[in-house]
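Lab channel / #folding
Pinned by the channel admin:
"Please post every new chain as: sequence first, then the structure tokens as a reply. Keep commentary short and put observations after the output so the thread stays searchable."

First post following the new format, from NK:
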Amino acid sequence: MPHPQDSQQNTLPLNLTLTLAALVVIVAGMRAGSSLLVPLLLAFFIAVICTAPVQWLHRLGLSKRLAVSLTLVVIGGFLSLLGLLLVNSFDTFIDALPGIEQKLYQYYLGFLDGLAGLGLAIDTNRLADLLDADQLGNWIPAVLGEVGNLMMQSVVVALLVMFLLFETLNFRDKITRALVNPAPSLRRFSEFSLTLKRYLAVKTLISLVTGALIWVSCKLVGVEFALLWAVLAFAMNYIPNIGSAIAAFPPVLLLLVAPEGGLFDAILLASAYLGVNFLMGNIIEPRVMGRALGLSTFVAFLSLVVWGWIFGAVGMLLSVVLTMTLKIALDSHPETRWIAHLLGPGDESPIEKAHRPISERDEE
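Reply from TO:
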């Protein structure tokens, strides 16, 4: 008679193969349906963030429907005003772009001539052709097209957010009626929802403060299009490791080639970016969120590559948010909590607390 442990070991390779095959099918399906999933994901995360003011207004005595409506009106008005200011700044930037391209190309030619003057065996003419002004104009419209596509999808995302917020009003009642024993599922869902809202709210607040500090820094240094760079810093703050460098590169480069700028001002602005991101990302964010809501450096960078490959630029923007959502979902169930520990930084909680949910580890 075979031992039960031997039978379990024999089925382990089969289960692992089936799991990997299912993972491949899921990833391929997400990549194929990215045009549909990206607006849904954006709407879901925005709706999760918006539930905090809805609940706050409901505690003040407003009905849930009135709280949702008031939240949508306030957030919609704020985003519309910000969008108008941003479009105006973006139009000014597009008008100034040909002059900026020409100045960058002149700096590039001077850099190549300097390398040739040092005795390096380089073909300056061939390298100059790799980055001429005409070729720069070919990829910039492609980037602007991606931005325009994202702006077009914002209307769909706004409608989805509105319907999702109204759908959450009776979501618990639907779960209670749908399940035979809803108590465990509702408890796990509540833990997942609270932890996810905490993470998204803190991350968004830190990104807003980062954008505001970058706006002040750009104004003080004197770089043009400060609002544009502040919004870029806010968005790129969601991207781990390289997000701050991507956000800092355009304004620093613009200040370097601007007539009223120079090397000293560019270094000063780069130092401001470095200081803001070090303060917010390495000091304030871990203290506010706690180490239990962190990811290991390798997992954060791997999520950037994987989600970027699946969903493109929006996947890179939401890479940490998506991975943290997956980690929180895994941590909310005892059987998958060990996977959540593997995704974490390794020192998020003492070993004796590792079996407990995230929401219970910081209470003591």
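NK: Residues 112 and 167 are 60 Å apart (CA to CA).
TO: also worth noting, Residues 64-117 form the longest helix (54 residues).
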